[in-house]
Write a structure and sequence with these properties.
This protein has helices at 20-27, 31-50, 72-91, 116-123, 132-135, 151-162, 186-191, 202-205, 214-221, 225-233, 237-249, 259-269, and strands spanning 2-10, 59-62, 97-99, 102-103, 128-129, 139-147, 169-177. The chain is an alpha/beta fold. The chain has 2 domains: 2-191, Rossmann fold, CATH 3.40.50; 198-269, no CATH class. It has a 5-stranded parallel beta sheet, sandwiched between helices. The longest helix is centred in the N-terminal third of the chain and has 20 residues, at 31-50.
């Protein structure tokens, strides 16, 4: 069984059912917004599905695939799980378990700019991996923030088929583009609604609820060098080191487009060159 649910369906390019500004902050690491989105999605799923369909298997929740740096969805997933677990415990069900879909390819392209064919062509070069034995006998929730063309969903379902998963599958989204006449780059309109430049990140990073994710790391590393240098020197040592560690963990030091900015971070961390990175 495969069941798909989205909390918000986008039918018009100017009406979303949620704040585009909040969505943009969420995509760049605002955990306060991730909390609001995760709770809302959990409550919608409970209200519109779980209230009517008794659970017969333990749920496993899986965020969108990532390699080393989590995606923004990972933060939303945390709060989705917290809210869902409260309901499950109250109803006498087992609380959820978690698993991860591993991905093998990293790329610099901004996914939100691409049309459906370009998205599918890009992601077809990737491969997803999961622990099949851990999922045996359980129902699996694949969680993502937004469904635009379904390219990621196709990859997830291809993985399900390749691994011969027999689980009940739930595909859950905070939002879904339900009008195919709207260009997929509406995603970038949402992604950058609040973040117009690298300097718009400062309030998010320096706020009380920041969680680093893939998007913000790629955005910073790909920014024009002069602005990047000014921005970086205004950040805490903790953030600069976190940024560098995340970049290395995802293999971004092997991407030419990020080399100059990463070189500056390296010199920022090791100004005397006594330690080689």
């Amino acid at each position: 069984m495969t069941f798909t649910y989205s909390l918000h369906k986008i039918h018009h390019p100017d009406s979303f059912g949620f704040s585009p500004d909040a969505y943009s902050r969420f995509k760049f690491g605002d955990d306060g917004v991730a909390k609001d989105f995760g709770i809302a999605l959990a409550e919608g799923f409970i209200r519109n599905y779980l209230h009517y369909v008794p659970l017969e298997k333990q749920l496993v929740v899986i965020s969108s695939p990532y390699s080393f740096i989590p995606t923004a969805t990972f933060a939303m997933k945390n709060h989705f799980v917290f809210r869902l677990n409260r309901w499950l415990a109250e109803e006498g069900y087992p609380v959820v378990q978690e698993a991860k879909v591993h991905r093998t390819i990293t790329y610099k392209e901004d996914y939100g700019e691409l049309n459906a064919a370009e998205r599918l062509n890009l992601i077809n070069n990737d491969s997803f991996h999961i622990d099949r034995s851990f999922l045996e006998g359980k129902a699996v929730i694949f969680l993502d923030d937004i469904r635009i063309t379904g390219s990621h969903e196709k990859m997830i379902l291809r993985m399900v088929e390749e691994y011969e998963l027999k689980n009940d599958i739930y595909l859950l989204y905070f939002a879904e583009l339900a009008n195919p006449s709207i260009h997929p780059n509406i995603e970038n309109y949402l992604n950058y609604h609040h973040v117009k430049s690298i300097f718009d990140l400062e309030k998010i990073i320096q706020g009380d609820s920041f969680l680093i994710n893939t998007r913000i790391v790629k955005y910073i590393l790909n920014y024009d060098y002069e602005s990047f240098c000014i921005f970086l020197q205004n950040q805490s040592d903790n953030f600069v080191n976190l940024l560098y560690n995340m970049a290395l963990g995802n293999g971004y030091h092997t991407i030419d487009a990020y080399a100059r900015n990463l070189g500056f971070i390296n010199r920022f961390i090791y100004p005397t060159n006594n330690i080689k990175a």
